[in-house]
């Protein structure tokens, strides 16, 4: 294994380990939500209200801002040194403070006017609509704090620091768990406590990164330097990147709007399923994407296009190797997994069945969600944010059309299925156009590799299905110990078979991971 690949895997490993901690806490967060609120009306209101700042987070923070900021910062770092690059960081912090600060104030004041269009299905329930508006007003400052956290993460990742930025969301999850278990007791209705918890957690996600920024020599100074060439380049790239990166959140928003017209609990079922799907996506897909952006940006800035293509191909193969079997396991053992994680308190077996149905539909697109994140980094490294925009618009259109088609035969699960298919469309077009930027050594090599891993994953997933069904039996009331046993045994057997077959097929990625662990 080359030194570059070893370094890349080590960085990904650090990011993934920190992300594992965060995602486990994220699961505990959802467990606490499910136990306290179940999949009922108040939880629907919270999920719907949080969708709006989450959409803007992708538009102005973790998605578009990172995509535009990291390549420019990396180029500045390589050509002019760390102190000049830090001046750009201060300018970006200052502009965010002023612009997003104003946006937050306006959003809070105008919430009663726009929320009613966002969850129009709540129109017949005045109390539900009022609660959604109030939660939206409480949680909107989250976007400002998470934008600060995103700039901090992009800066630290660009200078080779991945652990603390990846661990930052863990603090958010801890705050949300404590809010669900304790803070909600002091509010009426209790769900308001989650709204305040989201804001506190967003602030913590930023604050935890400040010490490492300072240790690496960063000192903040207020600079509204709109004339700075690097700053102008960032915000010029950011607008189209916002539309491109936000495709995922727009798809989720579309699903929320349509689901607001369905039975109570539909929005919550999609939310809980999405959280489970995000566990492997965050540990593997997001980690590989976060590490690959500064890596590919540095290679492009150095003029090594062949190296950039190789890095992108390596990232894509790792995503396939890790996420395809993850998807197979989620599909095969869905009821066991959902029951283990959520079924307690106000969360019933009927809720488990509904969430499992949505989880299977989301899992179909899991590997493509990861591939979209990794492949998009090629365009951002080349400072091309327009091409992903055009492709994202197409993917969003596909999602809307399919959502309206699938809603009748499949109900809320059809919305998840439409989102998965739109991710497949998104990746297909991104992959085709990325080859023009950084041509791969073998045009169809990734497809052949995908089909090979798909075959192995199908076998593993089928075994997970049979094992979990055998342990769970035909009962409708599953004991917690029974669900845990089904999840663990199915995962161990299916995972072992996947690894054994990969070893027999001499899959390179398995050998690389083994060497790294050694």
How many helices? 21
Indicate the percent of residues in helices: over 70%
Mean pLDDT: 82
Poorly predicted residue ranges: none
Q: For the report, how would you describe the main beta sheet?
A: none
Query: Structural class of the helices, strands and pairings?
Result: mainly alpha
Strand % is under 5%
What is Rg? 22 Å
Terminal CA distance reads: 12 Å
Number of domains: 1
Q: Rough shape?
A: globular
Strand tally = 0
H/E element sequence: HHHHHHHHHHHHHHHHHHHHH
Report on this structure.
With 518 residues, the protein is an all-alpha fold. The chain has one domain. The protein has helices spanning 3-37, 41-60, 64-80, 82-118, 126-139, 141-158, 163-181, 192-207, 210-215, 229-245, 247-259, 266-301, 305-332, 334-342, 349-363, 366-381, 386-410, 412-437, 445-472, 480-504, 508-517. The longest helix is centred in the N-terminal third of the chain and has 37 residues, at 82-118.
Provide key terms for this protein:
518 residues, 21 helices, 0% strand, globular, mainly alpha
């Amino acid at each position: 294994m080359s030194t570059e690949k070893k370094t890349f895997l080590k960085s990904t490993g650090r990011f993934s380990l920190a992300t594992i901690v965060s995602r486990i806490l994220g699961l505990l967060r959802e467990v606490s939500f499910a136990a306290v609120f179940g999949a009922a009306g108040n939880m629907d209101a919270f999920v719907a209200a949080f969708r709006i700042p989450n959409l803007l987070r992708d538009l102005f923070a973790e998605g578009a801002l990172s995509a535009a900021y990291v390549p420019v910062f990396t180029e500045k770092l390589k050509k002019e040194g760390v102190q000049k690059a830090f001046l750009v960081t201060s300018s970006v912090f200052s502009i965010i403070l002023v612009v997003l600060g104003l946006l937050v104030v306006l959003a809070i004041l105008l919430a009663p006017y726009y929320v009613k269009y966002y969850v129009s299905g709540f129109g017949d329930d005045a109390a539900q609509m009022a609660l959604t508006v109030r939660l939206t007003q409480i949680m909107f400052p989250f976007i400002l704090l998470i934008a600060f956290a995103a700039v901090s993460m992009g800066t630290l990742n660009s200078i080779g620091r991945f652990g603390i930025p990846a661990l930052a969301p863990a603090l958010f999850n801890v705050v949300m768990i404590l809010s669900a278990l304790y803070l909600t007791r002091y509010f009426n209705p209790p769900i308001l406590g989650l709204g305040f918890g989201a804001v506190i957690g967003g602030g913590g996600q930023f604050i935890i990164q400040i010490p490492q920024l300072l240790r690496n020599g960063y000192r903040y100074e207020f600079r509204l330097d709109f004339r700075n060439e690097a700053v102008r380049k960032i915000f010029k790239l950011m607008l189209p990147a916002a539309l491109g990166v936000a495709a995922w959140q727009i798809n989720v928003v579309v699903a929320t709007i349509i689901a607001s017209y369905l039975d109570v609990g539909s929005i919550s079922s999609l939310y809980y399923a999405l959280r489970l799907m995000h566990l492997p996506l965050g540990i593997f897909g997001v980690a590989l994407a976060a590490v690959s952006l500064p890596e590919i940006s540095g290679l492009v800035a150095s003029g090594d296009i062949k190296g950039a293509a190789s890095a992108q191909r390596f990232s894509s193969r790792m995503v396939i190797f890790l996420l395809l079997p993850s998807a197979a396991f989620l599909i095969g053992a869905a009821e066991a997994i959902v029951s283990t994680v959520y079924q307690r308190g106000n969360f019933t077996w009927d809720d488990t069945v509904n969430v499992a149905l949505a989880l299977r539909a989301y899992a179909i697109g899991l590997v493509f969600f990861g591939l979209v994140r990794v492949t998009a980094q090629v365009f951002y490294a080349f400072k091309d944010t327009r091409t992903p925009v055009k492709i994202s618009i197409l993917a969003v259109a596909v999602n809307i059309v399919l959502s309206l088609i699938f809603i009748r035969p499949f109900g809320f699960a059809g919305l998840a299925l439409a989102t998965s298919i739109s991710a497949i469309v998104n990746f297909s077009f991104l992959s085709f156009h990325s080859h023009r930027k950084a041509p791969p050594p073998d045009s169809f090599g990734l497809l052949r590799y995908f089909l090979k891993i798909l075959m192995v994953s199908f076998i593993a997933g089928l075994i997970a299905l049979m094992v979990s069904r055998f342990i769970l039996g035909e009962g409708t009331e599953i004991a917690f110990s029974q669900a845990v046993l089904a999840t663990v045994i199915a995962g161990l057997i299916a995972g072992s078979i996947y690894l054994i077959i990969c070893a027999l097929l001499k899959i390179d990625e398995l050998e690389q991971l083994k060497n790294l662990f050694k």
